Amino acid sequence: MGKVNEPGDGPTIDIPTAADAAAVGPVHLQAWLDTHVNIERGITAEWIMHNLAFVAEPSGTEHRQGVFAQQKEDPARVLYRVVHLGGEVVGFLHGERQEADVSLEAIYVRKDLHGSGLGSRLMRVFDEWAGAVPARLEVMTYNDRALRFYARHGFTATGESLIWKDIVPVMVMERPAKD
After folding, report:
1. Structural domain count, the chain
2. Measured between alpha carbons, how far is 144 from 122 in angstroms, rounded to an integer?
3. Which tens digits make up the pLDDT trace of 37-57?
4. pTM of structure
5. Structural domain boundaries enclosing 31
6. FRET partner for 176 with CA separation of 20 to 30 A, picked from 8, 45, 70, 153?
7. What average pLDDT does the structure give for the chain?
8. Which among 72, 68, 130, 79 has a CA at the least distance from the CA of 102?
9. What CATH number is associated with residue 101?
């Protein structure tokens, strides 16, 4: 149990095991370094390391282990999947169910896999789990690739925005319930 697809299909999307918790952190941190640096806004690699290095540290691993346990206890409320390729974690997906909607907390794949269709495969897993309820997410306003990806999957900007850590501009996107 745990496999979402067959191993011969290339990258596999799997229910995470305790062993995956430590491997997700470096993927998460590297994804930020690859996609969120914005010198004009002061979001440098150094800033990211200062503010997000914890995701690849033991405290981040411990947090993910807790999320994995929540998923195991209540899979209707918490979704977490990891992407394995050649025995290593190369991406992940995290969603949480609220009272009236679901939130796409994170969807990341390694940069060399951008454009491979893997993000869309992860989105299909999210859609299946989410069911027929509205979905929301937060995305950096300058992450054009992610904005296009989410728009292709039916998300539109709500007009809500925030500034994370006093520097990172974030917008809220949502899509209506799917049939």
Report:
1. 1
2. 19
3. 999 999 999 999 999 999 999
4. 0.91
5. 7-132
6. 70
7. 93
8. 130
9. 3.40.630.30
